Amino acid sequence: MTMTKQRLERFLKIFEGRFSVLFYVLSFYLILSFMIRVTLLVWSASDADFNPFYILRAFFTGFLYDLTMGTLFLFLYAFYLLFFPKKWIGSLIDKCFTYIYLTIIFVIIYFSIMAEIPFWDEFGVRFNFIAVDYLIYTYEVVENINQSYPLPLIAGVLVGIIVLTFFVLKKKRAFKNTFSDRKPISSRLLPALSVLIIGSVLGIIMRNKQADFSNNLVVNEIGKNGAFSFISAYQSNELDYETFYPKLPEKEAYSILKSKLLQENQNYNSVKFDDISRSTKGGEEQHPNIIVIAIESFSADFLTEFGNKDHLTPNYDQLSKESIFFTNLYATGTRTVRGMEALTLSVPPTPGNSIVRRPNNQNLFSVSTIVKSKNYQPYFIYGGDGYFDNMNNFFGGQGFDIVDRNRGNPLSDEIKTQRFAINDNEVSFENAWGICDEDLYKQSIKYADRSTKANKPFFQFVMTTSNHKPYTFPAGKIDLPQGDRNAAVKYTDYALGKFITNAKTKTWFKNTVFVIVADHCASSAGKWEINIAKHHIPAIIYNLNQQPEKINRLTSQIDLMPTLFGYLGWNYSTRLYGKDINQTKAGDERAFIGNYRTLGMLKENTFNQIDDRKRVKQFKVSEKDKSFTEISNIKKNLVSETVAYYQTASERFKNGKMKAK
After folding, report:
1. 75, CA 20 to 30 Å: which among 119, 280, 521, 629?
2. Distance between CA atoms of 388 and 276, rounded to whole angstroms?
3. How do beta strands 266-268 and 278-280 pair?
4. What's the CA dihedral at 517, 522, 525, 526 to 10 degrees?
């Protein structure tokens, strides 16, 4: 007992010497990290798997991440405390360095912990590559935060917490001990090395993947540390398929792919094993103008058709009754750039960043390639600054003329396309992300008028922003308050209805088809790494010379544009991965869904999942709520098909095979 007491006393002395502030701060950080972990678990309790083993492992793993980050935060300070000359301890220099260093560390710690709350609320995960991307676009993100949250209050709370922390440290005599203990370096070696060695070893061996041990997203994510996850995402913002994912022999992968891509009305143009170009036989071709409207965060469950009782979308609901209405359509990802990728490149969501954001993404074979072959001039119309997420360079690189706010940030020199500015006098309302949808649709009409006057068929890709936090829009338009998600949805629908009404007054309306689809859902949080229900989006093809109908067959977002071309009877050559759903054999329907690291294919009520640890899983998908039940007896043919799609898509982009020429 005496020996144990002596050891405890020796341990407690580290809080009474030169390293007292360091170990108090480390203890604070570990306690705060534990508290945020408990908070997030309680917050998402309805989606969590409370298997005791899972919870214990998540908290243990989380503690290791917390210890890693805590020691790394204090790494430099430990060096300083070890080597700072004994005779200067407690001097003005010593105090200034300590207070400044700790203030910076407290700002980082407390701000990151505070920021995790809204990030979890929106995405249901710890910091990831989205948080990394947001650092690049400081203006939009800061303005969005400023318009969504009370920044002065947040800043005040942050300062208050830091001041309170210093007060507590002073009350505990931590500073007095730190500035009065003048032991030699030899006596400071043990506490310093304990921090330096623990930080170094854990920093080397800990990987964010180690938290992904279960099929439950909440359990995996609470086992992580926000700051550690942020650094991991920064380091691995690109994922090479060949290195990280399950593979097939190249010729086998292409053989499977080519057997699955071919439609009833197609033939391959070459016998070369990796040439997927196909001739598509249509019928009597129609060449109406085409306006593709990608609506921000427009989940299917906002619609009355899918059980919503709040009557948020009366205009879309009515349009769907007059259109080709896709009721079983799934977005490929959880971000706008994924929706853009799916609708323009018609390709599965390859791992890492969307192709929209990657280098060397100009002149790809795309929907633009096809419509330009039919003499259309494509436009990309966006109400914000299109440099965000590299949108302008991507669309410009595919031959789209650009319409955006055009505030600096020119296109890359190699992109030869026109760029038009939305002027201030054309804007009635604007927030961090762009002009309101009403103003955006006026731009669509403006350039439709211009193309009509030039006797040129037009293809427009219109990207809305109003249904995005901070959920603000012009006053007096709807009967719901600003700043609310439902209100933003209702305003988005209001603006769409007004746009269609205005378009009907134009001479070009009768010869214009509208494709109105979501870019992705409003949220992706839930129990599993990929939550199928959170990818269910609506899409309609309106004003087509065709009787209204519902397409209830499983459809991927990448299939929407090829299906439109089928309705228009187009004869064309394609290298797209998307298929005309009306020319797809029964049983061959599939949807591709990914979330940056985890990729999957939904087919035959089975979700086939692969990830960057080369793991393969299959789940039976419930018809009722899209919940998962893991399958032990894996269907190998579906695994091979999933791998073939993603492997070849990744290989084709990496090696330039997606290039149009």
Report:
1. 119
2. 32
3. antiparallel
4. -70
Question: Do residues 383 and 446 make contact, with C-beta atoms less than 8 angstroms apart?
Answer: no
CA separation for the pair 647, 633 (Å, rounded): 23
What are the distances in angstroms from CA 69 to CA 61, 62, 169, 206, 336?
A: 13, 11, 20, 10, 32
Give the amino acid at 4.
T
pTM of the model: 0.84
Decide if 1 contacts 64 (C-beta within 8 A).
no
Q: Do 199 and 72 touch, CB atoms closer than 8 A?
A: yes
Question: Do the Cβ atoms of 382 and 391 come closer than 8 Å?
Answer: yes
Q: How far apart are CA 605 and CA 534, in angstroms?
A: 16
The CA-CA-CA angle for residues 264, 270, 276, to 5°, reads 60
Name the token pair of 647. 């492997």
Q: What is the CA radius of gyration of the chain?
A: 28
Residue 237 — pLDDT band, cuts 50, 70, 90? low
Query: In 3D, which of 243, 235, 136, 172 has the Cα closest to residue 23?
Result: 172
User: Hey, how many other C-beta atoms are within 10 angstroms of the C-beta on 605?
Assistant: 12
Which amino acid, 456? K
> What's the CA angle centered on 323, arms 326 and 574, to 5 degrees?
60
Instruction: Please tell me the distance from the alpha carbon of residue 150 to that of residue 158, in angstroms, as a whole number.
Output: 12
Place of tokens 């969590």: 48
pLDDT of the residue at 410:
80
Condensed to tens digits (0 to 9), the pLDDT of residues 351-394 reads: 988 999 998 999 999 999 999 999 999 999 999 998 888 999 99
Q: Which residues pair with 556 in a beta bridge?
A: 330
CB atoms within 10 A of CB 645: 24
Concatenating the DSSP letter of every residue in 490-538 gives HHHHHHHHHHHHHHTTSTTGGGEEEEEEESS-S---SSBSS-GGGGEEE
Q: What is the pLDDT of residues 9-36, one digit of tens each?
A: 565 565 578 999 999 999 999 999 999 9
Quick check: 591 and 554 in contact, CB under 8 A?
A: yes
Q: Do residues 601 and 330 touch, judged by C-beta distance below 8 A?
A: no
At residue 647's C-alpha, the angle toward residues 253 and 340, to 5°, is 130
Token pair listed for 658 = 């997606």
632 residue type, one letter: S
Name the 3-class secondary structure at 384.
coil
CA 606 to chain centre: 24
Q: Which amino acid is at 126?
A: R
**What is the residue type of 387?**
Y
